[in-house]
Design a protein that fits this description.
- About 40% of the residues lie in helices and about 10% in strands.
- The protein is an alpha/beta fold.
- α3 links the parallel β2 and β3.
- The relative contact order is 0.20.
Length: about 90
């Protein structure tokens, strides 16, 4: 990914939910945010594209977006797990 950025890629992409543990998912997101910061580009994630309420990488991406104040420079799509999140009315 570093080489791609050196060659002029204009966005960092991540797929954190494919990692084996929650810790590795967080490291994946952290790496993408760091790379995007170093090259001053936006970051896009494909998060939780599974139907499992246990897949929560989107929550970590949201928290990191707020902490890093990268408002408007972070996107996520295909958030399939959102449909299986339990709500207070369930």
């Amino acid at each position: 990914m570093e080489k791609a950025m050196e060659m002029g890629t204009d966005v960092v992409g991540g797929l954190p939910h494919v990692e084996w543990t929650e810790e590795l998912c967080h490291k994946h997101v952290d790496f993408c945010f760091d790379l995007a910061d170093r090259y001053d580009v936006p970051v896009h994630f494909l998060c939780d594209d599974v139907v499992s309420p246990m897949s929560r990488t989107l929550e970590y991406v949201a928290a990191m977006t707020v902490q890093s104040r990268r408002y408007g420079r972070v996107a996520s799509s295909h958030n399939g797990a959102l449909s299986s999140y339990r709500t207070r009315t369930q």
